[in-house]
Amino acid sequence: MPNIKLVVIGNEILNGKIFDKNIYWLARFLNRNNLQLNQSIVAHDNYSELEKIFRQTIDETDIFITSGGLGPTKDDITKDFYENFFGLPIEKSEEAYAIVEENYKRKGMDFSTKETANCYPFLPKGVMPFNNPLGLAPGLGYKFDHRGKRKILLSAPGVPWELSAMVEEEFYPFIKKELSLNSSFTDRVNIRTKLIPEEKIFTTIAPNLWSQLEQLGQVSSLPQIIGIDITVSIEGKNQNEMNQKRTEIIKIVKDTPLKGAIWQIGETPLNEFIVQKAKEKKFTISTAESCTGGLIASLLTDISGSSEIFLGTAVTYSNSSKENIINVQNDTLEKFGAVSIETAKEMAEGTRKVFGSDIGISTTGIAGPLGGSKEKPVGTVCIGISDHNNTEAKLYNFSGERTALKTLFARMALYTLLDKIS
Amino acid sequence: MPNIKLVVIGNEILNGKIFDKNIYWLARFLNRNNLQLNQSIVAHDNYSELEKIFRQTIDETDIFITSGGLGPTKDDITKDFYENFFGLPIEKSEEAYAIVEENYKRKGMDFSTKETANCYPFLPKGVMPFNNPLGLAPGLGYKFDHRGKRKILLSAPGVPWELSAMVEEEFYPFIKKELSLNSSFTDRVNIRTKLIPEEKIFTTIAPNLWSQLEQLGQVSSLPQIIGIDITVSIEGKNQNEMNQKRTEIIKIVKDTPLKGAIWQIGETPLNEFIVQKAKEKKFTISTAESCTGGLIASLLTDISGSSEIFLGTAVTYSNSSKENIINVQNDTLEKFGAVSIETAKEMAEGTRKVFGSDIGISTTGIAGPLGGSKEKPVGTVCIGISDHNNTEAKLYNFSGERTALKTLFARMALYTLLDKIS
């Protein structure tokens, strides 16, 4: 398997202005295509720093992919790197020109020579241009030999969607062609559990689980939001061997007390999993959100096709909107308060009735940092759920800062929803 | 200034299971404290790989910070690295034991020796334990000399909130004490613009801007969602010099046609900026969201104190909920369709009246991938805004995949809201 290194070029990442999304995307893409990201380095837009990284790691690396530094401004130094490191003078490339012209056409823009004629179609001599399916600037590719070994350098823009489209449509087919990739099978078995903390799973709850799973592949354990994923990376000579290993791993985990905590064998995100299940069972859903402020609705509507099962949400931040829109009783609010089991129940039932859904789910709590009290500290949340037969609510306590709490509250509500649907 | 390197240890990041949040957080934190993250490397949980990174980069690096690999499971190898790289045998540390015991107490948990007695209080000999303000496992610190220079190695857990709390409360004071940090002033001036594409700014709109700004500091240009940040990193001997440079930079930018596109001099996120402005002007806000599915509400309620100005949201995914909850006319929906200027206007006005807010803002559009047509393709959105005097709406077209489109729609709605408030 080729050793692949991603070099993320960007001052703006190292000074904390933005966070990089390309490491995650590329790691995931390579893994799903039976390749492996071996290392990723985030470096400054600085020639001598890039040179050092290349010199230090070129022996072990087969394919370098760089992200960033291909734009039209002066801090974009990727082409300069090719020019100076390999001694390739920058010159106009007809092939790059054609790509850029076509990209402008696709976007319905005139290829005004004023703006980019000095930049996009000019490449270091001998460097291949790659199409940029979603942007304007072409990608770059260069093959060279180092100590008798073939090396590949590929450069994509830093904009995440441009990089991902370029890797999928251009770099990956190129890599496949260049290397005769071996076809041994690799996969991961991912078991998603909820509500049990990591430190208990492999000690008190299932002390032998790790070593049993290790017989079958490389084990890792990854904390998720209120839950843990246990992953076993497996290899095999054929699909049959892979299936056997997969079956055995699942059996081993289900033979432990973890069985009841498993909510999925797979890697589907919780929101997508709920939308799938609700579609299968033909349940419609609505939410009433106070402390989560629309986050549950936003998570569900991130999923394509959610409109089949998701009817709507009332984000009722004020007491009066709780009364007017989803018919929470004024008495209930006065007697028990907005953050209470009773209000959560009326909210869940209210939203179900107002939107005419099969299931209504509600959150009311204190995300802080203000608004907590001794009885109901920051982190308190009541989650209500209502269907045609039954309405109930529970109180939970979490800790963290405001957006973390919103995420925890929404996650707990989604687990509650999943239980109801399953 | 010390050369600081972050080594993110985690197979789960390189195989695409999770995305790292620590690079971003640490880069930001160091920058705000007049330090600089010089490089970040994401590496496998693998001893020989870590050893190679340390050997290759130790000459230039003053402080290594590692994240990850301190947990209780077998894939956590950070302590093994200290043991083998420096030859420090693992043994029980009374200091670490006290920290762990205290952390269990704080969480209201018994320090059951069963689970972690074999792990958390055991450290490589001579390594300092650091408190973990939000978690259980102590951090590690080690000072050593290499070629006559003092080096520091600090290790925090990979869990983002544990790392950030540990860096703030433990590592940073430690670093300050160890190094006599010089006190030259550094800062950045950040000018946030909207709606003008990057490739036009420095070419046709303000062709001399970049070189003018470069006289004053290091310039970078960073695409945001439907907008560009122009940043100039400045240095100075005293606060007075810094203020002069800041004033001059702002004047230079405002003397270009960019003036009208500037929405902020600063780094406040758009949602926080809107909440601040609305508080100042004492405006209350409500939203009616179709295609954004609650995302605008969730962004506004991410901000502490948003309850003063944000009253609520109706996420009306279905036509009937548009009619029932925010009183969109059935006629309007039939005649113009759900995605129309007319529906957007009625939604904005409807939510304003239902929630009793000063301003109502609405989105109705097609986030795809399904649901587009020739007249209204995926990416079409109508954004409505209503106050006591006026209700209007505009149609926009964007491109991207579903969650990217939701983000673009929400951003455009927030810009619309900001214009109304300002």
How would you describe this structure to a colleague?
Two copies of one chain form a homodimer. Helix content of chain A is 40%, strand content 25%. The first copy, chain A, is an alpha/beta fold and 422 residues long. In chain A, the strands form four sheets. Chain A has a six-stranded mixed sheet, sandwiched between helices. In chain A, helix 2 (22-32) runs parallel beside helix 7. The first copy, chain A, is globular, with a radius of gyration of 27 Å. Chain A starts with a strand and ends with a helix. At the A-B interface, helix 1, helix 2, strand 2, helix 3 and helix 6 of A face helix 1, helix 2, strand 2, helix 3 and helix 6 of B. Strand 2 of chain A pairs antiparallel with strand 2 of chain B, so a sheet runs across the interface.
Keywords:
alpha/beta, homodimer, 6-stranded mixed β-sheet, 16 helices, 422 residues, 17 strands, 5-stranded mixed β-sheet
Give the topology, please.
The structure is a homodimer of 422-residue chains.
Chain A: E1 4-9, H1 11-14, H2 22-32, E2 37-43, H3 47-57, E3 63-67, H4 78-86, E4 90-92, H5 94-106, H6 113-116, E5 122-124, E6 128-130, E7 139-146, E8 149-156, H7 160-178, E9 185-194, H8 198-205, H9 209-214, E10 218-224, E11 227-236, H10 239-254, E12 262-265, H11 270-281, E13 285-289, H12 295-301, E14 310-316, H13 319-326, H14 330-336, H15 341-355, E15 359-365, E16 380-386, E17 391-397, H16 402-421
Parallel strand pairs in A: 1-2, 1-3, 3-8, 13-14, 13-15
Antiparallel strand pairs in A: 4-5, 6-7, 7-8, 9-11, 9-12, 10-11, 15-16, 16-17
Helix pairs in contact in A: 2-7, 11-16
